[in-house]
Write a structure and sequence with these properties.
single chain, 3-stranded parallel β-sheet, 5 strands, globular, membrane, Enoyl-CoA_hydra/iso, ClpP/crotonase-like_dom_sf
Length: 169
């Protein structure tokens, strides 16, 4: 899955247009990385949380995840809490930490705000190729880190933590 997620995130980063993630429920681990791969993240207040579960389950966080988190989570304290405390953040807490751009009342409002923002951004009539190149420059650390394969090795990375699905090892 790691290589497929890297490929998807690479595709999102190279798109010649702004991207908006509308989060309607939980976004944990790869789900959080997928959401943060967008330029804008909107999340409903009444359901779900953002969560990097790796600490709780004993997995090593891939370096390219950390590179993306560094680019998207502005405060070093917030980054520490997300990665090393495995803090579960609802929409309002994530907005206060500037991890999401907007906390919306519910699913319908999240969609409405995403559409409104999309129309606003399209109305700017930016050059798509220029937008994509600027995003790639902004996320150059992520693009560089994604070039290295850090597929999780269950035996190496989780054998001592005691967490793994029955029969996997």
């Amino acid at each position: 899955m790691s290589s497929k997620l890297r490929s998807l995130v690479g595709d999102l980063i190279s798109l010649p247009m702004p991207t908006i993630a509308a989060v309607f429920g939980h976004a944990s681990a790869a789900g959080l990385i997928l959401a943060l791969s967008h330029d804008y993240v909107l999340m409903r207040k009444d359901k779900g949380f953002l969560y990097m579960s790796e600490m709780d389950i004993g997995f090593k966080v891939p370096a390219w995840f950390v590179a993306l988190l560094r680019c998207k989570v502005g405060s070093p304290a917030a980054l520490r809490d997300v990665v090393l405390r495995a803090e579960k953040l609802g929409a309002e807490a994530a907005a206060k930490k500037a991890i999401v751009d907007l906390a919306c009342e519910g699913a319908a409002e999240t969609v409405e705000e995403a559409v409104r923002l999309g129309k606003e951004l399209v109305g700017r009539r930016w050059n798509g190729a220029g937008y994509g190149r600027n995003r790639e420059t902004l996320l150059a650390e992520v693009v560089g880190a994604m070039r290295f394969d850090e597929t999780v090795d269950i035996r190496r990375d989780c054998g001592e933590c005691g967490w793994y699905p029955q029969g996997l090892l």
